[in-house]
Amino acid sequence: MSWDGLQRETLEALGYSLWQRIDPQAVELPDDPLLDALLQAAGRNRDSADAGALYRSWPPLTQLRDPKAKRALWPRLRAMRGQPPA
């Protein structure tokens, strides 16, 4: 439900706090060239519907800076190229 300005002011005056629902799928993607490269390798970009889910499923970007960890992820990324975003 969304509240207009007057309703928000009234609720705040009555001592109520409005809560905001957050989509559990929504993830703020960091501004990192490595992330962009990984998404591109998967055939995706930042605007893809599943970009946040992919980012959460990968090891942390700091760990992926290690060449071994990055190479271990490449087969999964290549497999995603032909698949439509989830």
Low-pLDDT regions:
none
Largest sheet: none
CA radius of gyration: 19 Å
The helix/strand order is: HHHHH
Instruction: Classify the beta-strand content into a percent band.
Output: under 5%
The coarse silhouette is: elongated
Q: Which bin fits the share of residues in helices?
A: 40-55%
State the end-to-end distance.
Answer: 27 Å
Question: How many DSSP helices?
Answer: 5
* Helix-strand category: mainly alpha
Number of strands: 0
Global mean pLDDT: 85
Written description of the protein model:
Helix content is about 50%, strand content about 0%. The chain is mainly alpha-helical. It starts with a helix and ends in a 6-residue tail after the last helix. The chain has helices at about 5-15, 35-40, 50-55, 60-65, 65-80. The mean pLDDT is about 85. The protein is elongated.
List the helices and strands and how they pair.
Layout (H helix, E strand, L loop, with lengths): L4 H9 L19 H9 L9 H7 L3 H4 L2 H14 L6
What would you say about this model in short?
The protein has 86 residues and is an all-alpha fold.
Overview features:
elongated; mainly alpha; 86 residues; 5 helices
